[in-house]
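Help wanted!
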Amino acid sequence: MTASYYLHWGVVQISLANFLVILLMVLVFVLALLLPFPGRHDRGDR
Amino acid sequence: MTATAERGSWTASLRHRLARTVPPGQVLPDRQPAYVASWIYVFGVLSLASLLLVLASGIVLTVGGPTWWHTNAFGHFVNSTHLWSVELFFATMVIHLWGKFFMAAWRGKRGLTWVTGGLAFFGSLGTAFTGYLSQTNFDSQWISTQAKDGLNAAGIGAYFNVLNGGQMLMWHITLLPLLVGVIVLLHVVLVRRHGVVPPIDETGWLPGTQPPEREQPPEPAGRAEPPAPVEPPVRTDERVPTARSRS
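Answered by r_m:
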């Protein structure tokens, strides 16, 4: 088993895998705000 | 049953109390306000779905015993299902939390809904922690030896001993799931009672400011027939158009 790769910013350190998971969650959050929801009709009416 | 007889009946009292807490049309509504048609409102129910998967895979692991999953391919599969459903549970729950934070979802007397959500989050952290301690492998040993000093320094090591694998396993499969389950149930009941929080621009006020005068009595969305008023209105958000009325 190989050791995890860690990122370091001063006193902050986080494994690359955990950092990527957080980035993915932020991406999903932004997409949830931007992507239209299926079946919603009111956006084109404005 | 006469009204006098109902006053002395605990079943009738409980029935009335339940009806007051969540009126019949709000338990499982078939309509929601138009603003709910957004992906950001999906993450709460995704958390619930993940939690059900966590519980189901955890029950299978419980039947096999603490070390059973090491010994066969199906055990590995169930253990991985348990782990990844927990990962999904936390990811969806945190995105749900982000969404509700930026919506200021405690508006409209929803403070207790917000608080129970927070408690569910912290209870889930403890449940996940004891789960990592119950893996019966080197990882759980490493985590327990790293955690013991902090917990001992906090003065709770004698009561919550992370080096005691049996105690951690019992907390993980009985006490903490019960706690999280009850809190999540309360959270869902409160969401159904007060309804989904409307966007800030729908109510026209920002957190920290005084809400505008209500133009009309609150009307719960998704209720087919308004029930007879038994106490002051439970819905506190402003009236908003429903998905059906907008489309």
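OP: Thanks! One thing I noticed: The CA atoms of residues 127 and 177 of chain B lie 7 Å apart.
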